């Protein structure tokens, strides 16, 4: 699934966070596997069913809201977009909360006049997350090196 996500990234686009689960978009598509990522530009979801792959993508300014719902063991993420909704089910609860919070921060930055203030992680946490993304195969070695240097240059 991570490889399918990587295929959908635009040149220079950086994945900030991603989650794995099961997903549906409206009543139209659904699949047993989904990866949804928050990038520096948009939210991208790749739904993989038995015989087909469906990609959905919304620029951050197009996302109206994101919410979580919890079950006994897992959580759901619900993205509200114009005329539709995107649901990611069976996500680890802690990961769902972290992802929702990251999306909310990104939405605050993406909306002009929203008053949103970016919440910067400390450089150590950002470097650690960058290493995780490389290990998971979400970013390439070149992307890792470039982003790592950018974080170090901020110090």
Tell me the layout of helices and strands.
Elements: H1 2-8, E1 15-25, E2 29-39, E3 42-48, E4 53-59, E5 65-70, E6 74-81, E7 84-92, H2 93-110, H3 123-135, H4 141-153
Helix pairs in contact: 3-4
Provide tags for this entry:
155 residues, alpha+beta, PH-domain like, seven-stranded antiparallel β-sheet, 4 helices, 33% helix
Structural write-up:
A seven-stranded antiparallel sheet has the order 4-3-2-1-7-6-5, with helices on both faces. It has helices at residues 2-8, 93-110, 123-135, 141-153; strands at residues 15-25, 29-39, 42-48, 53-59, 65-70, 74-81, 84-92. It is globular. The protein is α+β, with helices and mostly antiparallel strands and 155 residues long. The model is unreliable at 112-120 (pLDDT under 50). It folds into two domains: 2-116, PH-domain like (Roll); 120-155.
